[in-house]
Structure formats: structure tokens, C-alpha cells
Amino acid sequence: MAKPKKMTLQEAVAQIPDGAMLTFSGFTIWRRPMAAVYELIRQGKKDLHLVEVNGGTHSDLLIGAGCVKIWESCWIGHELFGKIGANLARRAEAGQVIIEDYSHVQILYRMAAGSMGLPYLPTFASMGTDMLNPAYDNLKTAGLRDGSNPKIPKKKYEIVSDPFYGGELLHIPAANPDWCIAHVQMVGEEGTVRVDGQLYSDSEAIKASDNVIIVAEQVVSEEFIRREPTRNLVAAHQVSCIVHQPWGAHPTGCFGCYETDGAFIQNFFKSTRSQEGLDAWVKEWIHDLPNFDAYLEKLGITRLEKLRANPAFGYSTTVKRGTRA
Amino acid sequence: MNRDTTLAKVGEFKPIDLLAVAAAREVTDGDVVFAGTGLPMLAIGLAQLTTAPSAVCIYEAGSVDGRPVSLPTSVGDARCIYQASVASGLFDVFNQLQRGKVDLAFLGGAEVDRYGNVNTTGMGKYGIVPEKRLTGSGGNSDINGLAKKTVFIMVQEKRRFREKVDFVTSPGWRVPKWPSGEMVHKKEVYNRAFRGGPEAVISNMAVFRFDENGEMYLDTYHPGFSPELVKENCSFDLNISRVRGETKPPTLGELDLLYNTIDPEGIFLP
Asked: How far does the CA of residue A129 sit from the closest CA of chain B (Å)?
């Protein structure tokens, strides 16, 4: 296997074709590959099929900007900084994006099965819910479960009897996205990946995907990152290419590096509830800027420094979070 | 530690304070607790500082038994794993849930029915073009399905306490059995994995529990409310015959902990 190539963000993102099935690192508003998402929008990607363990600011933005046709997941919002994914809601309610609902465990197991090379995994999770209501199998309703797209399973799920101990449970089909874009703290120059803090579902998302773009805060020598192999998550041969992009998860947070920029996300949520608002936001923060460096300059060093993590804790101790202190 | 056990009077606490305190009282010492973002974080923090010091808190993003010194704003927050025993990921902690290791979970929702089915997916007609899309299930449905006990913290409004929710996101005591969708007892759907379900719903007006048939009844009403007023704020015919009286208000000591130790920055308690 060839060593993963070091690329610019533009080059890495340019490899992703319209219509690709895509997944991401992170969890809601933490460690999302935002710089790459801005670049996907700048390059005008269309008809993307997102399959993600959970959504957040990154996917709501991508959906709002008109890049997405299908969203398969379990949740979208901005945590404390915006209670729903308003862009997904608006576009789904207008019939512009198809939602396929799974529960958190179900969609996680889709990715885990994909990462194991299995066609499906069994689970007890979220039986007795409307996620399993045949009337809400939206990809089937759209005629997309006809087998013509090898990435879309012919069934959303199957209820099966347990052949060993009795009773019933679910089989949940594997997902193998075409691409995973993961933002991580550190990568070796040959592609060894290290993630600090909670791992979320990064391992499953990366290993399930056919191609993997690693965007890292720091690129270090392999000699350095291999001194402590137990701290590493993914080996180089499972990575396609590497991008060095400090602050590349902003406004989402990155353990040990910087805090979630809550004020920025709150402003995004408030100002993008209408399509006009979203279009203006995308113009200001993406299209009017040539690249992510210009975005960071627009944010300014003072803002970024307040978000920087204190090494004793892994998070910022200077950012203002609540109404009192 | 000696804390002020004087009960706060109406006017000395906010509705949200009572929600946090009432939820904390649901924790038994030693419980393994799954908590979500927001009020659940206050509740588990308060329980650990008072009646349940050896309770273990798991956050679904992959943090096990953290000892945060700064309140997380979400379950993915870097703060969750300060002094944690394990920082892992969703696959580890959800597998612990499926394995039956979770005693209690705190959850929320937009609307609930008399059997404790909760909707966080969409209001009105659902389908390929939904009428009004909400956040989706997150882990709510998995946790409610597989924890031994769950406690819901919700805003009480007539339109939110419904005979039937628009979308069963999270399974209560009587749930649809697919493919027919016939409503049956949860046990008939979960088989060997059945281990319990919703224990209580705590609203800004009252605490509700579930009877032998899995139907919600009024357990206690908060100071300043009455059983009749609570019933008026339910769309279904709420059983108020088993009411035990008023919900115990927060103590001054609990309020002190909430505002000065757990959330001194005013994140969830502005």
C-alpha cells in the first residue's frame, strides 16, 4: 500500500466527487473537519450522501449550502448553542433532502459492521420505535432501495429471530462510505493517526470508509508518534491522504487544543434559520474568503487565543461560557 | 459535610432548580448512570455530592466515571473526561448499555404519551417530507430501551403530554411491534433484553410515575401547583388518584451546591 500523500486541503477535497457517500470524525460540536466542510462548499459539491453517527454544525451547514441529497443519521443540532439543525429541517420540510432515521446505536453499528467487513450486525437497540416503522423508510419511498446504488442496502433493517437463545432482534446493514474526513490532533508524516480525549466513533468511521482524509492539527515525524504506539488509533495503511490544518475544527472544539466556539455557533444558528440568512453566512465566511487561512485571519488571534486549551485540563479556562463568571 | 437542610420556600428557588434536585433524588448510591447534556449533568453532579457519592456517570460520547471540576456543556466536551477512569468512544459505552450495565439514565424529549413513549424526531405528519423536523433520536431511544430505569425531564404543556405522540422515538411501556405496529407491552418486543423502562417523568409542575400497566400517574406536584392544575396541563386523562402530596422543595444546601459548586459559571442555571 502506498504511503498516504500529503496534500493541501483544496487538493484533498477535490478528490471527492459529487454524489459521494461521506462521513466524518467527531461528535455533535466536537472535532468536526470544518475547514474541509468549508472547502466542500467552496468547491460546490452536489448530491452528497451523508452517513454519520451523529450530525452537528458541520452537516447542518453542508446541508444548508445545498451540497447534500441524503442524510442518514440519528441526531442533528448544535447542543447548547442551537437546539435543532435548522438547515436540515428547512430543506427536509421542503422535500430537498431525504432523511433516513436510525438510532444512535443502530447507525453506530452500521459503521462498526462496515469497519469489520461484515454485511450487518445484530442489536437490541431501539426496537419498538418508529425508526422501524415501514412507512418511514424514506429511501425506500424514494425508490432508492432497488439495488442500483451499491452503497444503499436493499432493506433499512431486518427483524430476525435469535437462532441461539430465542426471541427477536434487529439486523442493521453495514455502511461503507466512499470517504471519511477526520480532523485529529496529530498524524505522523507517514500517516499514523493519534486521537486524544474521547474517541467518539472515529475508529469505526475511518475504518468503514473506502478512502480517508486525515486533517491534523500537527504533523509530526513517524519516529515521534511511534514512541507510544498504544496512544495511536489508526495505522498509516488505512489512510489515503494527510492535510496539515491547525484550528481546522473551528468553530467545533478539539480536545487538548481548543474549546468549542459557542458564541460563533450560536450566531450561526441564529443567523441561518432562513435560506437567505444561510446564503449570506456562506458568502461572508466561505465564498468571500480564498481559503481557511483567510478565515482564521478574519476570526483574529485574540478570539482564537481565548479558545486555546489549558494543558492541565485539555480545555480552555479563559473562555466565557455562562452568564456569571 | 454539614449542609443547610432547611427547605427553600416558594420564591426562593426557580422551577429549573427543583427539576435538577428532583432528578438527583432518583439516583441510588452505586448506580451506573447515563446522563445527557443539560439538566441531567446538574442532577448527577448534585447526587454525587449528596446522596450518591459512589454513583458512576457515563456520557455517551465515550467518557466513563469522570470527575469534572468544570461543568461540561455537552457530552462530547473535553471536561467530561477530566479524571475519568476511561476515555473511550460510543462503541464502548453503548455496548456497556446493551450489556445491561446501566442502572439509570436521564433523558429529555419534546413530547410524551401516557405510556412514556417520547418524541424527539418530528411534529405533525412524518415521512419523506416531514411537517416539522426536530433533532432526531440521538441515544435517547437506545438508552430508554436498554437501561434498567429511565427518568425524563420535560417541560409541561398540554400539547406536550399527549394521548399519542406523533413519532415514537423512544420506547415507553407500550410500544409498536413491527412490522404490524400493534401496540404491545415493551417486554414482548425486547424479549431477553427487557430490563425495565421509564421510572419517572419530572416536569416543571410535577413528578409522574408509571403503574403496573405502564400508565403514567401523578406522584407528587410541585409547590405552587395542584393535582387539578397538573391534570389540566395533560392532553390525556391523567390518573391523579395515587398522588402522595407535594414534591419536596430543594434545601438551601442543595441550592448552594447547584449555584456555587456545580454550575458557578451560570451555564444551565443562568
From this structure: 5
Report yes or no: A317 at the B interface, CB cutoff 8 Å.
yes
pLDDT (tens digit per residue) in A139-176: 999 999 999 999 999 999 999 999 999 999 999 999 99
A and B: number of Cβ contacts within 8 A: 243
Other CB atoms within 10 Å distance of the CB of residue A16: 20
Angle of CA points B173, B174, B180, to nearest 5°: 145
Partners of A213 in the β-ladder: A181, A241
Question: Can you give the pTM of this predicted structure?
Answer: 0.97
Minimum distance, in Å, between the CA of residue B76 and any CA atom of chain A? 6
**pLDDT digit string (tens) for A186-224?**
999 999 999 999 999 999 999 999 999 999 999 999 999
Q: Which residue in B41, B73, B80 has the most chain A C-beta atoms within 10 A of its own C-beta, making it the best mutation to test that interface?
A: B73
Q: Does the structure's ipTM exceed the value 0.90?
A: yes
Question: What are the grid coordinates assigned to A106, written together?
Answer: 443502530
* Separation in Å, CA of A278 to nearest CA in chain B: 18
Would you call A145 exposed, middle or buried from its count of C-beta atoms within 10 A (0-12, 13-18, 19+)?
middle
Q: How far apart are CA A304 and CA B253, in angstroms?
A: 38
If chain B, 270 residues long, is cut into consecutive pieces of 10 residues, what is the mean pLDDT of each piece?
A: 88 96 98 94 97 97 96 95 97 98 96 97 97 97 98 96 97 97 97 96 98 97 97 98 98 97 95
User: Cβ A29–B76 below 8 Å, yes or no?
Assistant: yes
What does R_g of chain A's alpha carbons equal in angstroms? 20
Q: Which amino acid is at A152?
A: I
Burial class of residue A65, CB neighbours in 10 A (0-12, 13-18, 19+):
buried
Nearest chain A residue to B147 by CA: give it: A125
